[in-house]
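Q: Here's a chain of 142 amino acids. Please give me its 3D structure as tokens.
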Amino acid sequence: MSTTAQTTTAANVQESVPFFGVTNMESSLRFYLDALGFEMSNKWIVDGRIRWCWLKLGGASLMLQEFLKDRVPAGKLGEGVSVCFQCKDAIAIYHQAKGRGLPVRKPMVGNGLWVTALTDPDGYRIYFESPTDVPEETEYTE
């Protein structure tokens, strides 16, 4: 690829947004909106129900779309899929999620980051990470 084409393509790409197929939109929205604090910035409604939506949390985004009942994949959803949200304070996210009764993994340090994790209703792994100089494999203590 020529340098001009690479520069044009790079300048044109603005954001990467994970797109999750979900089995129950209401359950997913409770998890992302109510429990984690995402906000809905766009939606597509079919027969009075949200079928697709764009969610935002700070500078990060996710899209969700509910599978049609006859088109749900046969395999386990979310298996092997994870999204890492880079944030200022992953430990604050941990406390927020724990305070809302979510099953959140206790933070530990990996790759120079505090990392805490949750799993959404369809099995997608959601990680919140923030930089730290704490030694690797340190587990957070309250």
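Q: Can you summarize the key feature?
A: The domain at 16-69+77-131 is CATH 3.10.180.10 (2,3-Dihydroxybiphenyl 1,2-Dioxygenase; domain 1).
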